Amino acid sequence: MSVRLFAGGALALLFSVAILAQANERVLYVSAWDEKTHAPLTGLSVDAFAVREDGRAREVLRVSPATSPMPIAILVDNSQAARNHITEIRRALTSFVRAVEGLGPISIIGIADRPTILADYTTDLKTLDAGIGKVFAMPGSGATLLDAIVEVSKGLGRREEDRAAIVMLTTENVEFSTRHYQDVLEELKKGGAQMHAVILNTPAGTSLSDEARNRASVLDRGPRESGGTRTDVLASQAFQTKMLELAAILKSQHRVVYARPESLIPPDKIEVSATKPGAEASGSPARGQKAK
Predict the structure, then answer these.
(1) Residues 116-161: pLDDT tens digits?
(2) 30/254 Cα distance (integer angstroms)
(3) Long-range contacts of range 232-238, CB-CB < 8 Å, 24 or more positions apart?
(4) Among 279, 111, 107, which Cα is nearest to 193's?
(5) How far apart are CA 257 and CA 264, in angstroms?
(6) pTM above 0.85, yes or no
Protein backbone atom coordinates (compact mmCIF):
# COMPACT_ATOMS: atom_id res chain seq x y z
CA MET A 1 0.00 0.00 0.00
CA SER A 2 2.76 2.41 0.95
CA VAL A 3 4.64 1.57 -2.26
CA ARG A 4 1.56 2.46 -4.31
CA LEU A 5 1.14 5.75 -2.46
CA PHE A 6 4.79 6.61 -3.02
CA ALA A 7 4.53 5.77 -6.68
CA GLY A 8 1.39 7.86 -7.06
CA GLY A 9 3.04 10.82 -5.35
CA ALA A 10 6.11 10.52 -7.55
CA LEU A 11 3.96 10.47 -10.68
CA ALA A 12 2.08 13.55 -9.50
CA LEU A 13 5.37 15.35 -8.85
CA LEU A 14 6.72 14.42 -12.26
CA PHE A 15 3.48 15.59 -13.86
CA SER A 16 3.71 18.97 -12.08
CA VAL A 17 7.34 19.39 -13.16
CA ALA A 18 6.37 18.56 -16.75
CA ILE A 19 3.58 21.12 -16.71
CA LEU A 20 5.90 23.83 -15.37
CA ALA A 21 8.50 22.93 -17.98
CA GLN A 22 5.91 23.48 -20.69
CA ALA A 23 4.78 26.83 -19.27
CA ASN A 24 5.59 29.97 -21.24
CA GLU A 25 6.96 33.06 -19.54
CA ARG A 26 4.88 36.17 -20.21
CA VAL A 27 5.63 39.79 -19.36
CA LEU A 28 3.40 42.51 -17.94
CA TYR A 29 4.24 46.15 -17.30
CA VAL A 30 2.54 47.12 -14.05
CA SER A 31 2.16 50.28 -11.99
CA ALA A 32 1.39 50.17 -8.28
CA TRP A 33 0.44 52.99 -5.97
CA ASP A 34 -0.96 53.82 -2.55
CA GLU A 35 -4.75 53.96 -2.63
CA LYS A 36 -4.96 57.06 -0.41
CA THR A 37 -1.93 59.14 -1.34
CA HIS A 38 -1.49 57.91 -4.95
CA ALA A 39 2.24 57.75 -4.25
CA PRO A 40 3.95 55.08 -6.39
CA LEU A 41 5.06 51.86 -4.74
CA THR A 42 8.52 50.69 -5.76
CA GLY A 43 10.84 47.78 -5.10
CA LEU A 44 7.99 45.26 -4.94
CA SER A 45 8.51 41.49 -5.10
CA VAL A 46 6.60 38.54 -6.55
CA ASP A 47 4.21 38.34 -3.59
CA ALA A 48 2.99 41.91 -4.25
CA PHE A 49 1.05 41.03 -7.41
CA ALA A 50 -1.68 38.60 -8.41
CA VAL A 51 -2.12 37.71 -12.08
CA ARG A 52 -5.18 36.02 -13.58
CA GLU A 53 -5.98 34.93 -17.11
CA ASP A 54 -9.67 34.48 -17.79
CA GLY A 55 -10.11 34.17 -14.03
CA ARG A 56 -7.38 31.53 -13.56
CA ALA A 57 -4.52 32.37 -11.21
CA ARG A 58 -1.02 32.35 -12.70
CA GLU A 59 2.29 32.05 -10.89
CA VAL A 60 4.35 35.25 -10.71
CA LEU A 61 7.97 34.28 -11.35
CA ARG A 62 9.98 37.51 -11.23
CA VAL A 63 9.47 41.22 -10.60
CA SER A 64 11.98 43.94 -11.44
CA PRO A 65 11.95 47.69 -12.20
CA ALA A 66 10.84 48.47 -15.76
CA THR A 67 13.72 49.97 -17.72
CA SER A 68 12.70 49.75 -21.40
CA PRO A 69 11.74 52.98 -23.22
CA MET A 70 8.09 54.03 -23.11
CA PRO A 71 6.83 56.34 -25.86
CA ILE A 72 4.05 58.59 -24.58
CA ALA A 73 1.42 60.25 -26.77
CA ILE A 74 -0.31 63.14 -25.01
CA LEU A 75 -3.77 64.00 -26.31
CA VAL A 76 -4.61 67.51 -25.18
CA ASP A 77 -7.94 69.31 -25.31
CA ASN A 78 -7.52 72.53 -27.29
CA SER A 79 -11.17 72.84 -28.34
CA GLN A 80 -13.37 75.82 -27.57
CA ALA A 81 -14.61 74.08 -24.41
CA ALA A 82 -11.08 74.33 -22.96
CA ARG A 83 -10.75 78.10 -23.48
CA ASN A 84 -10.99 78.92 -19.77
CA HIS A 85 -8.48 76.23 -18.80
CA ILE A 86 -5.62 76.71 -21.26
CA THR A 87 -3.26 78.24 -18.68
CA GLU A 88 -3.73 75.28 -16.34
CA ILE A 89 -3.42 72.81 -19.22
CA ARG A 90 -0.11 74.31 -20.35
CA ARG A 91 1.22 74.37 -16.81
CA ALA A 92 0.27 70.73 -16.30
CA LEU A 93 1.83 69.67 -19.61
CA THR A 94 5.08 71.49 -18.86
CA SER A 95 5.38 69.82 -15.46
CA PHE A 96 4.50 66.40 -16.85
CA VAL A 97 7.04 66.32 -19.70
CA ARG A 98 9.79 67.30 -17.29
CA ALA A 99 8.70 64.73 -14.71
CA VAL A 100 8.82 61.86 -17.25
CA GLU A 101 12.08 62.99 -18.86
CA GLY A 102 14.21 59.97 -19.66
CA LEU A 103 11.29 57.58 -19.88
CA GLY A 104 10.95 57.75 -23.66
CA PRO A 105 9.96 59.97 -26.60
CA ILE A 106 6.87 62.14 -26.18
CA SER A 107 4.42 63.50 -28.72
CA ILE A 108 1.72 66.12 -28.19
CA ILE A 109 -1.50 65.98 -30.22
CA GLY A 110 -4.28 68.56 -30.18
CA ILE A 111 -7.81 67.19 -30.59
CA ALA A 112 -9.71 70.30 -31.74
CA ASP A 113 -11.63 69.74 -35.02
CA ARG A 114 -9.18 67.01 -36.09
CA PRO A 115 -6.15 65.36 -34.48
CA THR A 116 -3.16 67.64 -35.04
CA ILE A 117 0.46 66.95 -34.14
CA LEU A 118 1.82 69.84 -32.08
CA ALA A 119 5.09 68.05 -31.33
CA ASP A 120 6.15 64.75 -32.91
CA TYR A 121 7.84 62.04 -30.83
CA THR A 122 10.98 63.52 -29.29
CA THR A 123 12.98 63.64 -26.08
CA ASP A 124 14.04 67.26 -26.66
CA LEU A 125 12.45 69.52 -24.04
CA LYS A 126 12.75 72.64 -26.21
CA THR A 127 10.76 70.97 -28.98
CA LEU A 128 8.14 69.82 -26.48
CA ASP A 129 7.95 73.29 -24.94
CA ALA A 130 7.34 74.71 -28.42
CA GLY A 131 4.53 72.18 -28.88
CA ILE A 132 2.98 73.16 -25.56
CA GLY A 133 3.15 76.78 -26.68
CA LYS A 134 0.88 75.86 -29.60
CA VAL A 135 -1.88 74.77 -27.22
CA PHE A 136 -4.64 77.35 -27.40
CA ALA A 137 -8.41 77.05 -27.65
CA MET A 138 -9.58 77.04 -31.26
CA PRO A 139 -12.75 79.17 -31.55
CA GLY A 140 -15.85 77.30 -32.63
CA SER A 141 -14.12 73.91 -32.50
CA GLY A 142 -15.21 70.63 -30.96
CA ALA A 143 -13.15 67.69 -29.79
CA THR A 144 -12.18 64.69 -31.92
CA LEU A 145 -10.85 62.60 -29.06
CA LEU A 146 -11.99 59.25 -30.44
CA ASP A 147 -10.40 59.93 -33.83
CA ALA A 148 -7.17 60.86 -32.05
CA ILE A 149 -7.13 57.64 -30.00
CA VAL A 150 -7.54 55.55 -33.15
CA GLU A 151 -4.85 57.38 -35.13
CA VAL A 152 -2.38 57.43 -32.25
CA SER A 153 -2.98 53.74 -31.48
CA LYS A 154 -2.23 52.83 -35.09
CA GLY A 155 0.96 54.88 -34.98
CA LEU A 156 2.12 53.33 -31.71
CA GLY A 157 1.35 49.89 -33.10
CA ARG A 158 4.08 50.43 -35.69
CA ARG A 159 6.71 51.29 -33.09
CA GLU A 160 9.09 48.66 -31.71
CA GLU A 161 9.11 49.54 -27.99
CA ASP A 162 7.55 46.85 -25.80
CA ARG A 163 5.48 49.33 -23.76
CA ALA A 164 3.68 52.59 -24.55
CA ALA A 165 1.17 55.01 -23.09
CA ILE A 166 -1.55 57.35 -24.28
CA VAL A 167 -2.12 60.20 -21.82
CA MET A 168 -5.23 62.35 -22.19
CA LEU A 169 -5.69 65.75 -20.59
CA THR A 170 -9.21 66.86 -21.44
CA THR A 171 -12.45 68.44 -20.40
CA GLU A 172 -15.77 66.68 -20.89
CA ASN A 173 -17.07 68.44 -23.97
CA VAL A 174 -18.88 68.07 -27.27
CA GLU A 175 -17.45 65.15 -29.25
CA PHE A 176 -17.22 65.59 -33.01
CA SER A 177 -15.92 62.08 -33.75
CA THR A 178 -18.57 59.71 -35.08
CA ARG A 179 -16.73 56.48 -34.26
CA HIS A 180 -18.40 53.70 -32.29
CA TYR A 181 -16.77 53.01 -28.95
CA GLN A 182 -16.17 49.32 -29.76
CA ASP A 183 -14.12 50.24 -32.83
CA VAL A 184 -12.04 52.67 -30.79
CA LEU A 185 -11.41 50.14 -28.01
CA GLU A 186 -10.39 47.53 -30.59
CA GLU A 187 -7.79 49.87 -32.11
CA LEU A 188 -6.55 50.74 -28.62
CA LYS A 189 -6.10 47.03 -27.89
CA LYS A 190 -4.25 46.43 -31.16
CA GLY A 191 -1.86 49.31 -30.43
CA GLY A 192 -1.07 47.87 -27.02
CA ALA A 193 -0.74 51.21 -25.23
CA GLN A 194 -1.98 51.86 -21.73
CA MET A 195 -4.56 54.65 -21.65
CA HIS A 196 -4.33 57.19 -18.84
CA ALA A 197 -6.98 59.92 -18.67
CA VAL A 198 -7.15 63.07 -16.54
CA ILE A 199 -10.61 64.55 -17.06
CA LEU A 200 -12.24 67.77 -15.96
CA ASN A 201 -15.89 67.04 -15.20
CA THR A 202 -18.25 69.53 -16.87
CA PRO A 203 -21.98 69.64 -17.70
CA ALA A 204 -21.15 68.45 -21.24
CA GLY A 205 -20.43 65.05 -19.73
CA THR A 206 -24.15 64.52 -19.16
CA SER A 207 -25.07 64.77 -22.85
CA LEU A 208 -27.17 61.90 -24.19
CA SER A 209 -26.08 62.12 -27.84
CA ASP A 210 -24.60 59.06 -29.56
CA GLU A 211 -21.24 60.83 -29.80
CA ALA A 212 -21.26 61.59 -26.08
CA ARG A 213 -22.18 58.02 -25.17
CA ASN A 214 -19.39 56.61 -27.33
CA ARG A 215 -16.91 59.03 -25.78
CA ALA A 216 -18.08 58.18 -22.25
CA SER A 217 -17.77 54.44 -22.95
CA VAL A 218 -14.20 54.83 -24.21
CA LEU A 219 -13.19 57.01 -21.26
CA ASP A 220 -14.73 54.47 -18.88
CA ARG A 221 -13.54 51.20 -20.42
CA GLY A 222 -10.35 52.33 -22.14
CA PRO A 223 -8.24 52.94 -19.03
CA ARG A 224 -9.52 49.79 -17.29
CA GLU A 225 -9.13 47.44 -20.24
CA SER A 226 -5.73 48.77 -21.33
CA GLY A 227 -4.17 48.62 -17.87
CA GLY A 228 -4.15 52.38 -17.41
CA THR A 229 -5.78 54.82 -15.02
CA ARG A 230 -8.54 57.43 -14.98
CA THR A 231 -8.59 60.50 -12.75
CA ASP A 232 -11.52 62.93 -12.57
CA VAL A 233 -11.09 66.48 -11.29
CA LEU A 234 -13.61 69.18 -10.47
CA ALA A 235 -11.36 72.14 -11.27
CA SER A 236 -8.62 72.58 -13.87
CA GLN A 237 -6.32 73.91 -11.13
CA ALA A 238 -5.90 70.25 -10.14
CA PHE A 239 -4.50 69.29 -13.57
CA GLN A 240 -0.88 69.89 -12.61
CA THR A 241 -1.05 67.86 -9.38
CA LYS A 242 -2.76 64.91 -11.06
CA MET A 243 -0.41 64.91 -14.03
CA LEU A 244 2.58 64.89 -11.68
CA GLU A 245 1.06 61.95 -9.80
CA LEU A 246 0.62 60.13 -13.09
CA ALA A 247 4.21 60.87 -14.13
CA ALA A 248 5.51 59.36 -10.88
CA ILE A 249 3.40 56.24 -11.40
CA LEU A 250 4.62 55.79 -14.98
CA LYS A 251 8.26 56.22 -13.99
CA SER A 252 8.00 53.55 -11.28
CA GLN A 253 6.52 50.71 -13.33
CA HIS A 254 7.45 47.10 -12.65
CA ARG A 255 8.28 44.37 -15.15
CA VAL A 256 6.28 41.36 -13.99
CA VAL A 257 7.09 37.93 -15.42
CA TYR A 258 4.55 35.15 -14.92
CA ALA A 259 3.98 31.60 -16.17
CA ARG A 260 1.30 30.65 -18.67
CA PRO A 261 0.59 26.95 -19.28
CA GLU A 262 0.97 25.71 -22.84
CA SER A 263 -2.28 26.38 -24.68
CA LEU A 264 -3.53 26.71 -28.23
CA ILE A 265 -5.97 29.46 -27.31
CA PRO A 266 -4.67 32.73 -25.79
CA PRO A 267 -6.71 34.24 -22.93
CA ASP A 268 -9.32 36.90 -23.62
CA LYS A 269 -8.72 38.75 -20.36
CA ILE A 270 -5.52 39.30 -18.36
CA GLU A 271 -5.85 40.93 -14.94
CA VAL A 272 -3.20 42.08 -12.49
CA SER A 273 -3.90 43.36 -9.00
CA ALA A 274 -2.03 44.30 -5.84
CA THR A 275 -2.15 41.84 -2.97
CA LYS A 276 -1.29 44.31 -0.23
CA PRO A 277 -4.21 46.07 1.51
CA GLY A 278 -4.32 49.76 0.63
CA ALA A 279 -2.41 49.27 -2.61
CA GLU A 280 -3.71 49.41 -6.17
CA ALA A 281 -2.16 48.16 -9.38
CA SER A 282 -2.84 48.24 -13.10
CA GLY A 283 -0.90 46.95 -16.06
CA SER A 284 -0.89 45.35 -19.46
CA PRO A 285 1.06 42.75 -21.45
CA ALA A 286 4.33 43.76 -23.04
CA ARG A 287 3.75 44.74 -26.67
CA GLY A 288 5.00 42.44 -29.38
CA GLN A 289 4.65 39.19 -27.43
CA LYS A 290 3.54 36.37 -29.69
CA ALA A 291 0.40 34.54 -28.61
CA LYS A 292 1.25 31.24 -26.89
Answers:
(1) 999 999 999 999 999 999 999 999 898 999 999 999 999 999 999 9
(2) 5
(3) 232/199, 232/200, 232/201, 233/198, 233/199, 233/200, 233/201, 234/200, 234/201, 235/200, 236/84, 236/85, 236/88, 236/89, 236/171, 236/200, 237/88
(4) 107
(5) 20
(6) yes
